[in-house]
Amino acid sequence: MNKTNLTNKQNPLTKRREPFRFMLGLGIFGSVVFFSLLTLVYVSRRSAANWVNFELPTVFWYSTLVILLSSVTLHLANQAFKREHFFTYRVQMGTTLTLGLAFITMQLAGWGQLFNQGITLTKSVAGAFVYLLSGLHILHILGGLVFLVVIFAEALRRISYVDSFVYSVNPPNQLRIRLVTTYWHFVDILWLFLFLFLLYQHS
After folding, report:
1. What is the pLDDT of residues 55-101, one digit of tens each?
2. Which CATH architecture has domain 25-201?
């Protein structure tokens, strides 16, 4: 291998990237930019005459704890997968999936509380932004849940140790789990940012 080829291989701008990981990175970057723009618009609209502040539903606090806990269980699932503790892997993956569904349920319950207080899309500009930001985040969560369901179903189909081991050493399967894990941690961090942002704006 000549010096030019070695340089190109080590150059982060020219080296070959795994396409799915690259696509995920682009998607995450796009989401960050999109939500950043929405929060900037949110701040700029606070000076509007019809802006009415309100407290966030308490259930949003609980949903935040639930989604952060789901990152912990997914991390534990990955650790179990690498150590070939496949029963623990299935339990932790199922727990992550359950927590993700619980998060969405709590978010919708929060919407119900806001609606009962008269905070609707048409009557409250601040409320409309809360619905928009949390709703778009729920869509991101749903996308992650789809892949979690697929991975969990694959784990349930491979109950025996031999089947689980063969699955675990397959590089495409390893990549799929890493990508889903990266995405899930991202949407968890994204909600934490949105929640703290909304909490500060409504304090």
Report:
1. 899 999 999 999 999 999 999 999 999 999 999 999 999 999 999 99
2. Up-down Bundle (1.20)
pLDDT of residue 17: 57
Burial (CB count within 10 angstroms: exposed 0-12, middle 13-18, buried 19+), residue 146: exposed
Radius of gyration of the chain (CA): 21
pLDDT, the chain, mean: 88
Least confident of 49-58, 104-113, 180-189: 49-58
> What count of Cα atoms within 13 Å lies in the side-chain half-sphere of residue 164?
19
Residue 5, pLDDT > 80, answer: no
- CA dist., res. 9 & res. 123, Å (int): 57
Kindly tell me if the per-residue pLDDT of 167 is higher than 70: yes
Residue 61 amino acid letter: W
Question: What is the widest separation between alpha-carbon atoms in the chain?
Answer: 70
Residue 127 tokens read as 């409320």
